[in-house]
Amino acid sequence: KAADQSHPLAQFNLGMMYAAGQGVPRDTSKSMEWMQKAADLGDAGAQHYIGLQHHRASLDGLPEAAPESRIEAYKWLQLASAQGYRSAEAAWAFVALGMTREDVADANRRIAAFVPAQVNQPEVA
């Protein structure tokens, strides 16, 4: 219920549950959906997770899609690092090693433009 009410930690936890198949059927797609929602709300753990998934995609996916995946990995890992998330700084620095200057500049523009989504608060009468 809390995840459906835009509670970022609940969304992160539900995403982890779907990733591991813990109490729910294992579902990578649902895991990423909940993680993305939490990351968009500013949850550092979800941002770290999303960043790692993009990094893996840059290594395992189509070569032409790799630069975009690295840019997104860098963005999410840097956002998590800025919040002090453990190991995110080393991860984004590692991702940067495989990027061009233009890709890093693009990622930094995306980071600067990131504004956490606002949770719709119920109105109090």
Key structural traits:
125 residues, mainly alpha, single chain
Largest sheet: none
Total number of β-strand segments?
0
**Number of contiguous helices:** 6
Approximate strand percentage = under 5%
One letter per element, helices H and strands E, the order comes to HHHHHH
Distance between the termini: 23 Å
Could you write a compact summary of the structure shown?
The protein has 125 residues and is mainly alpha-helical. The chain is 66% helix and 0% strand.
Folded structure, characterized:
This protein is mainly alpha-helical. The chain is 66% helix and 0% strand. It contains 6 helices and no strands. The two termini are 23 Å apart. The mean pLDDT is 92.
How are the SSEs ordered, and which strands pair?
Layout: H1 8-20, H2 28-40, H3 44-60, H4 66-82, H5 88-96, H6 101-113
